[in-house]
User: Fold this.
Amino acid sequence: MFKVSPGRRAELNRLLASWEPDGAGPDALGFGAVETLHFASVTIFEREFLDPLLAIECNFDGKLDTFLADFAAKAGGLIALLNCRLGPAVRTPREAAEALRAAVVRPSARHIGALGLSRKEILASEALVGAVREHLCAHQTDLSQLDAPAVAATLQQAFKASCPPLAPRRTLPETIAAIMPLAVVAVGIPAVLLWACFAFESPWPLAGPLLAIAVAAAVFLWSERREPVRERPEAGDDLGARKENPPGAAQNHFSSLAPLKTGPVRWASRLVFMWLLDQLARVVFTKGKLGEIPSIHFAHWAVVDQGSSLVFFSNYGGTWESYLDDFIQKAANGLTGVWSHCQGFPASRWLVGGGARDERAFKQYARDTQAAEALWFSAYPTLTARRINNNRAIVEALAGQSREPPARWLARI
Assistant:
């Protein structure tokens, strides 16, 4: 995330307008040449409450420094882009990588729809499943005479050697590392407090934290009810959303930036809730869904501009309208818990109530805070998150690594 140099704004606009929408071209950002990159975007956020911000969003495999070096080496237009920011000029790919590294904003909470699947594996799995479908069509007459176990065995014999290497979605050390923080809070701390109650034959080790929680909840409720309430917008069609995402679109991109509410109460509740959401995404929401939403490839929230604003990026399947409908119907609590910390969001109750359930007000808020990306890249623009995870399950079965019965995984094809 960079601040735009006022004297270079015209040059920045010229650069972005001269490149292809997906950043392709020898003198552009060349996102497609970076083999570990899933999605990327370039967005300029302009708001009355902050100087223009240039955001380069990247969802990639592997380590950060390796990706930055690869990106800087292959992006022919990156140096020109970075020289439109406030800061010292960059002249070489190495200096460009260092400038990117210095401007990295790590997410406060994030979700990955195909957790643990690399771009290479996603593309290889799609190609293999396509070949399996062609094989089934070509041999439909012969295979229709066989039962499910026999068909499964025939396909495994024909395609097992073609299966891409299947790295585990998460190794045992990675699983333990992901679970540990949430386990300590959810199990470890209560267990220690209960042990202290029995050890000292006193309820105070448990009563003290409970009293602190009750006081904190009362203070939060008092603060929440004193917050200004945004006037509810009039009903009407969102023509901007209609034009933005045509019906049947496989993938789309959403970015927004909103000013955060001030004060220690909202600061503390935001830290706690975002930490909890991030932990749940790492431990619970690992099967392709964020809550009950199956359409999100990558999503993350981050605090920017010296802690004054919250930025949100999401790469998702379907249309803008259906995406927000999913949020309202399937994840309203979590969504409200995050965005109720932002100014102008529909009024919440007890942090997670209300808010996004007011469909008209929420969609207007989303439109007001949204910014149109100047560039957007997808390594697999025709694939949905559901299809990617379905392909993985089929390839696991072809490789003999699935616990699903033959009839079940054959139905996936």
Summary: The first strand starts at residue 2 and ends at 3. The first helix runs from residue 9 to 18.
